[in-house]
Amino acid sequence: MKIGILLTGHAPDELEPHYGNYIEMFKSLLSGQDFEFAGYKVVDGEFPEAVTDADGWLITGSKHGVYEDHAWIPPLEDFIRAAVTQSIPLVGVCFGHQIIAQALGGTVEKYNGGWAVGRQSYDFSGTEIAMNAWHQDQVTELPPGAVAIASNDFCKNAAILYGDRAITVQAHPEFSADFVDGLINTRGRGVVPDEVLDAAIDELDEPTNSQTIADQFADFFRQERPR
């Protein structure tokens, strides 16, 4: 099964040589699932020729906001809607979570409650799942027909299911603790309040459930669906 990874943002220049770009992080997250991968830097205007070029698509995180004026965002939204129409499964993470919601009629806003950074716990239908997060923007209104399948007190729509068409999460199962620490030092100080960053640092060594989410993504991609 071929999974196309749509890169919507670049890792900090200081970190990419050590951790790879976000395409490589998702390849690592989904390793062992017997997938073939292809990466496209849509943030740089590099798009697949057709939505049928892969059996499923994963949209990465980004430093950009989905509501910002970038030339590559409208065609990405068109691509999302085409994938949904043609029953080609989508997975979205952080920015990917938000752009899928926006493309399908939801609302994304800069959350007035501030930032989520580092390890966060979410209620997935009664099961506690922990992932690393890095965001201020949130999906504040669901698209028609979408269902929130995870939340916490800070983020109401932390994971969203769109039937058999898409599944998305706000947090970052692909981020290691070391990478979050690097983000704190390269993008955090002076932008995110120090108390939020310091609290994140205090929990960097706590375990997360990234593999559980990776398995959920893989199962979703493999799900039988009518075309």
TrEMBL record:
Q: Which CDD domains match?
A: GATase1_1 (cd01741)
Q: Which Gene3D superfamilies match?
A: 3.40.50.880
State the InterPro entries in the record: ChyE-like, Class_I_gatase-like, GATASE
- PROSITE patterns in UniProt: GATASE_TYPE_1 (PS51273)
Q: Where is the Glutamine amidotransferase domain?
A: 53-176
Under PANTHER family, the record lists: GLUTAMINE AMIDOTRANSFERASE YLR126C-RELATED
Please give the name of this protein. Answer: GMP synthase (Glutamine-hydrolysing)
